[in-house]
């Protein structure tokens, strides 16, 4: 194989790799946008269910009230409630001037 053909092969490989890198970069950007949208939606849902959690607590619900979520057809509901509780307790600590962890 001559030096010219070797050089040409390497240039082709480099161009192909650059195209792959560009495609992967576009996919990463797209996934980051999707993640950001999902995070916003999760925060909105958590904001909506905080009053429900407070209402459950005032009606005698316990901190173990996550159990009822495990029997629902939506396994992610327990995650939402746990997230809302976590966000709610973080807000309460920040309002009281307590350090958040």
Short description:
The chain has 101 residues and is mainly alpha-helical.
Overview of this structure, please?
The protein has 101 residues and is an all-alpha fold. The chain has helices at residues 3-58, 67-70, 77-96. The model is unreliable at 64-75 (pLDDT under 50).
The end-to-end span amounts to 63 Å
SS summary, helix count? 3
Provide the gyration radius in Å.
Answer: 25 Å
Instruction: Give the percentage of residues in beta strands.
Output: under 5%
State the total count of DSSP E strands: 0
Mean pLDDT: 78
Which segments are poorly predicted (pLDDT under 50) over 5 or more consecutive residues? 64-75
Largest pleated sheet: none
Tell me the helix content.
over 70%
- Give the overall shape, derived from the CA principal axes: rod-shaped
Order of helices and strands: HHH
Given helix and strand content, the structural type is: mainly alpha
List the topology elements.
Layout: H1 3-58, H2 67-70, H3 77-96
What keywords describe this structure?
101 residues, mainly alpha, 0% strand
């Amino acid at each position: 194989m001559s030096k010219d053909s070797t050089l040409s092969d390497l240039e082709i490989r480099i161009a192909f790799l650059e195209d792959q890198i560009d495609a992967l970069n576009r996919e990463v950007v797209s996934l980051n946008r999707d993640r950001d949208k999902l995070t916003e939606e999760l925060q909105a849902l958590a904001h909506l269910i905080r009053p429900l959690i407070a209402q459950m607590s005032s009606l005698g619900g316990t901190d173990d009230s996550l159990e009822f979520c495990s029997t629902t057809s939506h396994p992610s509901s327990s995650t939402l409630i746990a997230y809302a509780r976590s966000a709610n307790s973080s807000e309460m600590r920040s309002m009281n001037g307590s350090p958040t962890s």
